[in-house]
Amino acid sequence: MQSIQESKAVLTAAEQQVARLERDGITVATGFLVGPALLLTAGHAVALSLGASGAEPVRGMTAVFDHRDGTGWSSAGGWERVRLAELLDSSPPAANDPVPEGMRTAEDGLDFAFVRLAGHPSPVRDAHGVLRPRGYYRLSDEEFVFTAEGLYLFHYSQRVTPDHAQTQRTRLGEDGRRVRYRGANTLDGASGSPLVTRAGRVVALHHGHNGGWNQGVPAALIAERILAGPHAGSLRGALDAPPLPSHADTFRAVAAPAGDGSAAVRGATAVGEAMGALLGPHRPHATVPGPDGEPVRAADARQVAGYFRDAGPGQALGIGPVVEAARTMAASAGDGAVTAAVLAAALIRETAGHLGTDTAPRDIIRQATEAGDVARAALAAMTVPCPRPDGVARSATADRELAEAVSAAALLAGPDGVLVCEPGATRDVERPVPGHGLRLPAGNAFPYTADTPETDPWTRHIRLVRPYVLLLDPVTGDGEAFRRLRGRLAAEGSPLLVLTTADASDPRAGLLRSLGDPADGPVPTVVRVPVGPGRLDPLRALAVLTGATALTADSRVLPGAAWFDVLGRAELAVVSGSETVLVGGHHDPAALRRWIASTRELRSLTDSGAERAALDAHLAWLTSRAVTLAIGADTAADLVPRTAAAARVAHAAQAALRSGTLPGGGLALLRARAALPPGSEAPGTHAVRAALATPFRVLAARTGLGRDEVERLCAVADPELLAGERPFRAPDGGEPEDAAETVLLALDAALAALTAFLGTVGTVGTG
């Protein structure tokens, strides 16, 4: 069994220590570091690079190292090039090795080239920004016992980016001089790749494909040959040098305390990296690292969280707060879940090293909260109005058709209108259909409703399709008639939404209290409508919109009589913990027009500012708009994730219209980071500073922005100097934008996750 961080350590070492070998810009092989400025590759590949003569075989060759490191940062251009200076030792292939016809062979050939580089590649920064030596594989002559257990193979195969595979059915040949394996899909250019154990030890050099099997040379035989040759001192010096800390050791030393805290940080880091793979515009079914480090497909934060559901109790302490930050954003804002998770994971990772020290968790929370307040103020100051949400929509999805359609629909619905994205019947995104809808600033009143079949387990939103609507004021009654109504609707299979101005504590609210009794059957969804000026206006407006008759003290409709006749209906109702959205209704259009006209007339006649404000609010309810957008897809499998993506884009677009926009691509958070007081060593402040740069670093790595440029931008200490930077400008001149409301909520959710983590792990103990 191997932990996520142990797997990540092996992969990170390969990224830093395995090189693509080129001549004239063409990949000819793979090589790997085996000492300071020492590289090992396949002997036949070096000879082939200059043809059959083999004279000065490394002249004109370059080792190209991928400069990405544990954080995903990349140098300028993403690569570091080091010249191959001298061939120190080598051995030709054996006669039965898979090499081109006419190549020189030897009976005891091991097919390797031991090369000195012009210099050792530069150091790299670890996941915490600490500059560390690049390191190298230790090429030991100690015998390794090959078993069927899989080995990692890291290679380039004439590709710009490195690949890795895991071998299957690994076995040592009868003569003990070649290793055979399946499962590693290699192409030209893979010769010279290292085969590495799960512990990070190099045990063989891959050099070809023979008879349906991949084949390598045991590393112990190569080391033994070099140590018996004229340049044994070079390899011996590398082997005798004190070993550098492994990437896994570095993580444990810098990022995590011992015991439960360490497992929790590993969990938080792993789920944060998986969430980070979805940061920025992406298409459905993106590839993200799963709990075991292997790639999995995910469309959104919900699916990522599902992969980590079965984590052990130790890691769950870190995974839980990160997932909860994502879930909170999905439930409250509809977008920003991934950003919140990435920020939360970074905060947890950065503060974990201080657990068990003299700094108490409550002090870290206080410091982080104060730093968060500074960042929040900086974000508010840089917010600009949003006349059109096109940039925000494009930043939320890589699906350009979807972005354009949702942006136009958001403009039609307006910042506070209702915008619903539904699965369509065609492959295209259809034209938006306007209708009537309403947002009520109130959520479900009874916790029992959270267990109904209509409840989304991720957001806890209750979705009712074509529900009956009952409007209820605090009227007296024993509830018997209502229980009969509940039974009738249950038999019909129709949901019931109760909108009421009653409070369960009201002594007259006997009917309302009867709604919450699960002994009488499924509890309906109940929303308490806030009462403003003109006490019954909310119910009267809802009666006009839904076609229901409000049961009030003066409605002359008594409990127990004509219950079914007083019900109205909506096409759709979505109820969250803080809001209720209604779409459509069985209203009389002529009655609604008359009501709107009379309300406008009353407003024109009143001189009271308070009454005018109440009438404005009432008029906004009556005239509010709902826009429905039918989302199509090429296949049935793509329909659900594309519709979900459209809903996220819709939330982002409307949030931008409401609150304004900020620079996207993590730049707003980077500018907020620059606003923090310089030089503060407080752990909480440091954690916020590091976390605010994380989204930008993740996106920069994905887009190929050079590491030097990333470090330059992260080092700027003046927010105003960053204001003119445009590292993610699109070819058409467009720039990423984020809704200010979403970014601020994501920061709040991440800080809440840190508080939850420190409140749990800080008291569980880290020893």
From TrEMBL:
Q: Name one Pfam family in it.
A: Trypsin_2
- Supply the Gene3D superfamilies for this chain: GroEL, GroEL-like equatorial domain, TCP-1-like chaperonin intermediate domain, Trypsin-like serine proteases
Provide the protein name.
Trypsin-like peptidase domain-containing protein
Coiled-coil boundaries? none
Does the record carry Transcription regulation as a key word? Answer: no
Q: Which UniProt keywords apply?
A: Chaperone
Q: What family classification does the UniProt entry report for this protein?
A: Belongs to the chaperonin (HSP60) family.
Recorded hits in InterPro entries, A to Z, give: Cpn60/GroEL, GroEL-like_apical_dom_sf, GROEL-like_equatorial_sf, Peptidase_S1_PA, Peptidase_S1_PA_chymotrypsin, TCP-1-like_intermed_sf
